[in-house]
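STRUCTURE:
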């Protein structure tokens, strides 16, 4: 089994080298939404849209908050390869999908659609 070099885990590369499991990423969004990581004012600033700007990795345009994409359903972040973490304000749930393979977001989108169907929520 090949191990990730420790220098990569110790590096500080914003928006690139987060390390964790899908459960941990979802837990991060639960803690964030629950006010355990940021005070109410800063959390409100994070969730407030600041305008539509290009998403330079995925090549489309998104509404941005402070370091997260925001939309009427909630907020979170996706990345190259298909991984993402998300908090659904409308559904009151956190969702995370992490992959070790390069791909698009279609697999994670299908999983979230299934979760929303079970919860009786409309698709996003």
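SEQUENCE:
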């Amino acid at each position: 089994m090949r191990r990730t070099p420790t220098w990569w885990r110790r590096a500080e590369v914003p928006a690139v080298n987060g390390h964790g499991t899908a459960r941990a990423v979802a837990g991060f969004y639960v803690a964030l939404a629950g006010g355990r990581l940021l005070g109410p004012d800063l959390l409100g600033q994070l969730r407030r849209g600041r305008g539509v700007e290009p998403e330079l990795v995925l090549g489309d345009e998104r509404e941005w908050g402070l370091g997260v994409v925001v939309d009427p359903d909630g907020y979170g972040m996706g990345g190259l390869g298909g991984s993402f973490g998300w908090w659904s304000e409308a559904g009151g749930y956190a969702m995370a999908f992490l992959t070790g393979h390069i791909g698009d977001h279609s697999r994670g989108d299908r999983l979230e659609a299934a979760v929303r169907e079970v919860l009786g929520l409309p698709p996003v």
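REMARK: The CA atoms of residues 16 and 121 lie 31 Å apart.
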